[in-house]
Design brief:
Elements lengths: L1 H7 L7 H15 L7 H7 L4 H13 L3 E4 L4 E4 L1 H12 L1 H18 L2 E8 L2 E8 L14 E3 L4 H7 L4 H7 L17 H14 L2 E4 L6 E9 L5 E10 L8 H18 L7
Antiparallel strand pairs: 1-2, 3-4, 3-8, 4-5, 6-7, 7-8
């Protein structure tokens, strides 16, 4: 009784256990490769099943959890990735990436940039411009639809199928800029399959006419995609046969940054 009276007199004390349990659930879901059933969450987080259901329902309302009712599974929601990308947008990642992007520009002669996923958009947080090259629409602080950009596709390809479905539930979520790009969720899923198979993403004229990009994802120690490294070049100046060489340089830069974040770089 004494402890209850002390808790009652302390502002916010009654919320501490719930907050701890919520963070425990988030940490567990972040470590899973795919959505999981509630029983597994309850066991892993040492929660009563009813408490787990209540927490997951509240977290789903706030966007931190995605509920897949047909499969009876729960996974991370878009809001959880916004928190993760918020960390990635801060100084540590930009400081780590600045020299790597400058080296990429020196090797290729094209503009390079770093972007993070923010809901259905990518947010550009760093740009290194090649000498004599004009500024691009992908300037620092600009947001663009993730499914149209090479950076966004590289990041989306690293998410689970359930997370992509939750982010793009219908064709209404797939906006256009230049009358190009995927127009249905199934077309986007096929595009992401191709991206995973290649190991890098591409776009050609879907953001700006006459410009194309190649990009690869930077992964953290949980193997989550936290940023996209991209090169953008004028289509008229680059032979199609040379695009693979640019993609190789981009993948090397992304792998270097992945290792700096203690992630596992793909050979």
């Amino acid at each position: 009784m004494q402890q209850q009276r002390e808790d009652a007199g302390t502002p916010g004390a009654s919320q501490v256990p719930a907050a701890t349990r919520t963070l425990r659930v988030l940490r567990f879901l972040a470590g899973q490769p795919d959505p999981v059933p509630v029983d597994r969450i309850a066991r892993a987080c040492d929660l009563p099943r009813s408490t787990a259901y209540h927490l997951l329902a509240v977290m789903a309302e706030e966007g931190f959890v995605t509920h897949l009712p047909e499969e009876h599974l729960y996974g991370l929601g878009v809001a959880a990735f916004e928190v993760g990308s918020g960390y990635a947008r801060q100084v540590p990642l930009q400081r780590i990436a600045r020299h790597a992007l400058a080296t990429l520009v020196d090797r290729t002669g094209h503009n390079a940039h770093l972007a993070v996923l923010h809901g259905r958009d990518v947010l550009y947080v760093l740009e290194e411009r090649a000498p004599g090259r004009p500024p691009l629409v992908t300037d620092v602080g600009v947001r663009l639809p993730a499914h149209l950009t090479a950076s966004g596709r590289a990041l989306l390809a690293g998410l689970s199928a359930a997370q992509v479905r939750a982010t793009y539930p219908s064709g209404d979520a797939l906006v256009e800029r230049t009358d190009r790009g995927p127009r249905t969720p199934s077309a986007l899923r096929e595009l992401l399959v191709q991206t995973r198979q290649r190991g890098h993403a591409t776009e050609d004229g879907e953001v700006s006419e006459g410009m194309a990009s190649v990009a690869a994802a930077v992964r953290d120690h949980h193997d989550h995609p936290v940023a996209g490294v991209a090169l953008t070049y004028p289509v008229a100046e680059v032979d199609p046969a040379d695009v693979d060489a640019l993609a190789t340089q981009v993948r090397r830069t992304a792998a270097q940054l992945t290792r700096r974040l203690r992630g596992r770089a793909t050979p």
